[in-house]
Design a protein that fits this description.
By secondary structure, this protein is an all-alpha fold. Helix content is about 70%, strand content about 0%. The protein is globular, with a radius of gyration of 18 Å.
Amino acid sequence: MRLVTAISMPLVMPAMGQDADTDGDLVARLREGDRRAVEQAYIAHHAAIRGFARRLVGDTASAEDIVHETFVALPRAIRRFRGEGSLRAFLIGVAANHSRRHVRSAMRRRRATERFAAREELGPRAFDATRQLINRQFAGKLWAALDELPIDQRIVFVLCEAEQRTSVEVAEIVGAPEGTVRTRLFHAKRKLREMLEDPS
């Protein structure tokens, strides 16, 4: 039986260090409407936002859309930034807010891709192909399980388990009490464990 304590391939990433606390000048310029400040924020943080979005939706096209929407919304969203966390954490929160409609479209695309992959036959490199098939099957099962989670639980699970952020950091990102974050994570793990252990 597989206990869900962290996401395996293809979602896992190394534990992240603390975001640099050097955003004061950039945030001030963003609040003043400086367009170059948006470009600077994009250069500094787009890779982290794309990584979060990719792990959340499992779809590159949707992840790119989320990145785009996040930075388009930044000049208005920055008014809500209280300066209690890093700009990167704030941007991930903005991305999470823009991710909801993309989750459903990514689910549909992923299921269509899985149906196509299921029709593929093993090639002559049987051993390698079998290993890839097993990995693909587990990844597909994991994604299917993630698709069943409510979006708030899914966001918390990705932030806590895939990105290895603390519940305090995640609480700041999603704008919820730390206790709520822990509750969402508990329920997410329980549901994923039940689905992944289900032999059917």
